[in-house]
């Protein structure tokens, strides 16, 4: 078994994973701000966190994963400027924040499910932890904070090594962070924002510092510490969080734990900080406001199975930028189709599918009584995943397994199921026909297509090529391409 190695953004080094608690892995992932639908770039962050969680399970660690839902406190700028994203959307829509949060949380969960992202142990909702946030703030206020008219601010000069995660000295951030009158340091941030006099927010709570709402950074410090205990093992997020959100969480954690500098990673609250790189469009970072809003549902509406997007994510290492294109998605879908053809062949050779062991597949279960040719393959798959989650490499090993011929079919399927438990493509539950998603604009149903194709087959058998061609043209007029002799065995596509 290869030792699990992960890239720690805090040390900027690949490190061997040593859990804080023997045999366990505790992971916190910054979740979505539920003011709008997530775009597929946001979902890359959760596919990555899921891949990490699945790899930890595969390595035999008992995983506790927390993903939060931010329903208050995230401003339109990650630092201190702008409005609360939730309040802003609620005002625009003339709806209650609670309704907005519910709607978009459910939409996010639908994407989570469609992408085979496993359910974490906890979905922690920020507004459920206000009491704990007030206690946390109170415990650090005297030594680390000061009050201004607009709120309670964290003085970043009171902790050692502020900003180390971002590799930026405090002053460097100055240009980017809007000045608030009276701040001691440019990078100081509000941990509690007071409701301005004369205003009423939809979400506000009483506190020692007046009515108001918690800061976004405070929320993640509190929920991660509360649910996982400091220090926990791994904190994840998108690479943008490396600049402001996570350095600020770290500063609060240091203050709360009374810990020293960041020479000791555990002082930051987590031992390892991991960040996925961006999904980008040719024009730049994907965002909700610019251009076509790339939601998972849009991909589905255009006829792409959501797992083609998961495949697309797995094909790139999580620390590399990934450029989205429709051609790239098409290629990922084709790759998934080929995988399913291989799985179908393997399935046809066995009576029953291997039963998933309780608690999911681990490398150890995968080994089972497997011998001979399959063991080196499992070892190479393990090595790839242990090498800072090298999923592109692991995928090629998975495909090698699919192509293997002279192996015991039961063992092959066992190895397949176990590897898929890490990749999360769910290939044993998927049928090839499931991948053929009807685009929203399609004017013909599958039953009508199958019916026309059956009639065409009959015509061809009777050598009535005029009818056969007429049926083909009829289908083409409705946007259905008939694919005679397609190597992937697809008879038609929309
Ligand atoms: N283009 C992207 N590619 C990969 N991850 C991303 C991308 N954009 C945001 N993320 C990550 O998605 C997660 C969810 O972010 P959040 O819900 O806070 O979205 P957001 O800040 O409103 O997104 P955006 O800035 O894109 O509108 C975070 O971990 C964030 O770092
Ligand atoms: Zn967070």
From TrEMBL:
Gene Ontology biological-process annotations: cysteinyl-tRNA aminoacylation
Reactions this protein catalyses: tRNA(Cys) + L-cysteine + ATP = L-cysteinyl-tRNA(Cys) + AMP + diphosphate
UniProt-annotated location(s): Cytoplasm
Coiled coil: none
Position of sequence motif 'HIGH' region: 32-42
Cell cycle among keywords: no
SMART domains: DALR_2
Residues reported in the UniProt entry to bind Zn(2+): 30, 220, 245, 249
CC cofactor: Zn(2+)
Matching Gene3D superfamilies: Cysteine-tRNA ligase, C-terminal anti-codon recognition domain, HUPs
'KMSKS' region, short sequence motif: residues: 285-289
Co-factor remark: Binds 1 zinc ion per subunit.
Residues covered by the Cysteinyl-tRNA synthetase class Ia DALR domain: 380-436
Keyword entries, A-Z: Aminoacyl-tRNA synthetase, ATP-binding, Cytoplasm, Ligase, Metal-binding, Nucleotide-binding, Protein biosynthesis, Zinc
EC annotation from Swiss-Prot or TrEMBL: 6.1.1.16
Main location: cytoplasm
Residue spans crossing the bilayer: none
Pfam families from the UniProt entry: CysS_C, tRNA-synt_1e
GO terms under cellular component: cytosol
Residues annotated for ATP binding in this entry: 288
Family note: Belongs to the class-I aminoacyl-tRNA synthetase family.
Protein name per the record: Cysteine--tRNA ligase
Species this chain originates from: Alteraurantiacibacter aquimixticola
Gene that encodes it: cysS
